[in-house]
Fold:
Amino acid sequence: MRAVSEAWQKTAVVRVKEIEAEPVRERAALAEAEEVLRRRLIGLEQYLEAPATAVHGLWPSA
Structure:
């Protein structure tokens, strides 16, 4: 019985450590996703600015 209790305790300790590490992994994943979103936004801004820049170059400024 004692061996079973010790095994459960060890399992519980491992699980607690895993649960405690989850927020760290989640924050890292969130930071990575935010960086991907930031890069996509920059790309979209550049994509949308390109036609405006091209059109602006067609007409001489007064």
